[in-house]
Amino acid sequence: MHIELTSEEYAFRQDVLDFLERHLTNAVRRASRLSTGVFVDPPWASEWHRALYEKGWITYAWPKEYGGCGWSSVQRYIYESEAARSRAPAVSPMGVNLVGPVICEFGSDWQKEFYLPRIRSGEDYWCQGFSEPGAGSDLSSLKTRAVRDGDDYVVSGDKIWTTHAHFANMMFALVRTSQEEKQQNGISFLLIDMSSRGVTVKPIITIAGDHEVNQVFLDDVRVPVRNLVGDEGKGWAYAKYLLEFERGGGAPSTRCRVALEGYKTILRNEPGDIPGRQLIHEKDIQLRLGQLEAQVIALETLDMRQVSRRQAGARPGTTASIVKTLGSELLQAIEKASLDAMGSRGLPALKLQGPDFLVAPEAPVPEHGWAVAGRHLNGLAATIFGGASEIQREIIAKELT
Ligand SMILES: Cc1cc2nc3c(=O)[nH]c(=O)nc-3n(C[C@H](O)[C@H](O)[C@H](O)COP(=O)(O)OP(=O)(O)OC[C@H]3O[C@@H](n4cnc5c(N)ncnc54)[C@H](O)[C@@H]3O)c2cc1C
Question: What is the CB < 6 Å shell around ligand 1?
Answer without folding.
Answer: 127-131, 136-137, 161-163, 213, 381, 384-385, 387-388, 390-391, 394
